[in-house]
Amino acid sequence: MQIEQLQIFEIDNPHQVSSVEVHAQVLITSWVVIALLIALPVVATRNLQTIPTGLQNFIEYVLEFIRDLTRTQMGEEEYRPWVPFIGTMFLSIFVSNWSGALLPWRVIQLPHGELAAPTNDINTTVALALLTSVAYFYAGLHKRGFSYFGKYIQPTPVLLPINILEDFTKPLSLSFQLFGNILADELVVAVLVSLVPLIVPVPMMLLGLFTSAIQALISATLAAAYIGESMEGHH
């Protein structure tokens, strides 16, 4: 068997695995993000203290922030089961966005394409938006049963097409607003680095960190708001 035949996971854009096309560079950066999200709480909780300090204090602060965000959008009675989902959504987007701004992905040379933040790929943002849509419908059906579908004819059956269309536009808006903002930010920084490589890009990169955090907050807030809306008794 030739050596070339053993190179199953050669990084390409896209790469054919069996009959499925995958973007290996996106998978690699996503695995890095997942590893960071797993490693940080594991390290922080190895030696739990009654009075938290250091990394444990930081982790508890992040958890409290996510709980407050979820409670604000869903209400005191419904928010607890959804804290893990909203927290995973927020942290994965936040770390993905910051990894694109802080980690020197482009230093790693690839035969095709380049490494970048996972949220810089439309497939990632669409997947996150579809997860939110699945959670949205599950929450409504679990809470209200088949009476959930009554919202489509409220306040009048005339609005049925518009109400159905609304459920299709929600994942579209979630995916494209995140993808578009992250892509635009990286393009602006890349152009400025090529034109003025020393001075101008630094404040723009700092601004990029801020906007990346805001995008994670917006996406998590919208996801929580949509899920909370589906569990309400009215539309």
From TrEMBL:
The keyword Transmembrane helix applies. It holds the Pfam family ATP-synt_A. The keyword Ion transport applies. The chain crosses the membrane at residues 22-43, 82-102, 122-141, 178-200, 206-227. GO terms for biological process: proton motive force-driven ATP synthesis. InterPro entries: ATP_syn_F0_a_bact/chloroplast, ATP_synth_F0_asu, F0_ATP_A_sf. It is found in: Membrane; Plastid. Keywords: ATP synthesis, CF(0), Hydrogen ion transport, Ion transport, Membrane, Transmembrane, Transmembrane helix, Transport. SUPFAM superfamilies: F1F0 ATP synthase subunit A. It is a multi-pass membrane protein. One of its GO terms (molecular function) is proton transmembrane transporter activity. GO terms for cellular component: plastid; proton-transporting ATP synthase complex. Belongs to the ATPase A chain family. This is ATP synthase subunit a, chloroplastic. It comes from Ceratopteris richardii (Triangle waterfern). The lineage of its organism: Eukaryota, Viridiplantae, Streptophyta, Embryophyta, Tracheophyta.
